[in-house]
Design goal:
- There is one protein chain.
- Strand 1 and strand 2 form a beta hairpin.
- The chain is globular.
- Helix 1 packs across helix 2.
- The chain contains four helices and eight strands, in the order E-E-H-E-H-E-E-H-H-E-E-E.
- It has one domain: P-loop containing nucleotide triphosphate hydrolases (Rossmann fold, 3-Layer(aba) Sandwich).
- Strands 1-2-8-7-3-6-5-4 form an eight-stranded mixed sheet.
- It has about 150 residues and is an alpha/beta fold.
């Protein structure tokens, strides 16, 4: 797999991919190179951008051989392994209190797992750094992936 990437500024990196398979492979590679237990990954992308496909790759990068499904209606899917994977979808939530009722801090502050949070941008300022920010943009030729680590 060939990933064409460029450093834009600071630690912001842009990568262009063409297929869903490449997106999953990117997630797996990114995880192996950048993710540790206790990390938060905040993911931004429109409907159909590939957030669940990316989640599959990240889970595989954590050593989980499971079928990742979107937690759109359940809000949270938990996948247990040597490093647990907490997959959140906040699309149907409207109020920060709903996040607290979901027990989100129990997961995002856990040192035993990785939290992957879709639609986090509905709650700007709610998630404290450090975190990995990944944006998936649909392009004419596939996807543009922007990654950045926010440390403070």
């Amino acid at each position: 797999m060939i990933l064409n990437g460029e450093i834009i500024g600071g630690n912001l990196k842009t990568i262009h991919i063409k297929t869903a398979q490449e997106l999953a492979e990117f997630g797996q590679q990114y995880t192996k190179e950048n993710i540790e237990p206790g990390d938060k990954i905040l993911v931004k992308g429109t409907m159909g951008a590939g957030k669940t496909t990316l989640a599959q790759g990240i889970a595989n990068g954590l050593g989980l051989e499971v079928n990742i499904t979107s937690p759109t209606f359940s809000k949270l899917n938990i996948y247990n392994g040597s490093t647990d994977f907490y997959h959140f979808d906040l699309y149907n939530l409207e109020d920060p209190e709903e996040l607290e009722n979901l027990g989100i801090y129990d997961f995002t502050e856990s040192e035993n797992g990785v939290s992957y949070i879709e639609w986090w941008d509905k709650f700007p300022g709610f998630f404290s750094s450090p975190y990995h920010l990944i944006e998936i943009l649909i392009t004419d030729t596939g996807r543009q992936i922007n990654t950045e680590f926010i440390s403070c």
